[in-house]
Amino acid sequence: MRVLYIDTSSDYLYSGIVVDDKLVSSIKKKYEKDLSKEALPKIIELFDEANITPKDLDKIIVVNGPGSFTGIRIGITIAKTIAWALNINITPISGLTAMAISSNTNTYKMPLIDARRGYVYGAIYDKDNNKVIEDSHIELKELLDKSKDLDIEVITNNDLEINIKKESYDPDILKIVKHFETSDGINPHLVNPIYLKKTEAEEKAGL
After folding, report:
1. Domain check: are 59 and 134 in the same one?
2. Confidence (pTM)
3. Do 10 and 87 have their domain in common?
4. How are beta strands 12-19 and 2-7 bridged, if at all?
5. Cis omega before residue 66 (within 30°)?
């Protein structure tokens, strides 16, 4: 099984290729505004490092939200283009789920992405990565209140003021891929962004 993993839902490019349960090439790098220019060339380099070509892929896993509107579209566009050309399915996943899976904590897990103005994209998972609270665009204070009776650890790469235990998000690409290895995926044309939050234009238009 040859699997390409893509996550461009933040300022980072997290991507890797797994061949027969081994991570053979990967990148975890912050690009910020250069992400749109760098993502595809860097992913192409991963194929060179893995000594395979895109046509060798069996599956693509892509994070389709939540997070940066622009970033999410970058990853989905790359995944759709490759999958459509190869006539293979895509498994879209939540970036918050990927964060929870990557953590080795034995407590409840709260993956968080800063959505600014006191809001976050967040969820709560138990130690076995089952969702306790669904992915939400929510006030940080409200989510913290919901978790106040839980032994919980926050997973984030953002500078959030939280007085509970935190760990930095370091994606375990192999672990994420193995978690979804039995997923059949869906037709590339059916893969859409999951923003959770309205765009600024939608908010101004009252949609």
Report:
1. no
2. 0.94
3. yes
4. antiparallel
5. yes
DSSP states along 76-134 = HHHHHHHHHHHT--EEEE-HHHHHHHH---SSEEEEEEEEETTEEEEEEE-TTS-EEEE
Grade residue 32 by pLDDT with cuts at 50, 70 and 90: confident
**Which domain covers residue 25, as residue numbers?**
2-94+171-205
pLDDT per residue over 70-84, tens digit each? 999 999 999 999 999
Angle subtended at Cα 102 by Cα 30 and Cα 40, rounded to the nearest 5 degrees: 35
pLDDT tens by residue, 137-172: 999 999 999 999 999 999 999 999 898 999 999 999
Helices (H), the chain: 35-50, 69-86, 95-102, 140-146, 173-179, 200-205
Please name every residue paired with 108 in a beta bridge, in sequence order, or none if there are none: 152
Alpha-carbon span 144 to 153, nearest angstrom: 11
**Domains contained in the chain, number:** 2
Both 12 and 83 in one domain: the answer is yes
Q: Which DSSP letter does residue 149 get?
A: T
CA-wise closest residue to 155 among 123, 112, 119, 117: 112
**Both 57 and 6 in a single domain?**
yes
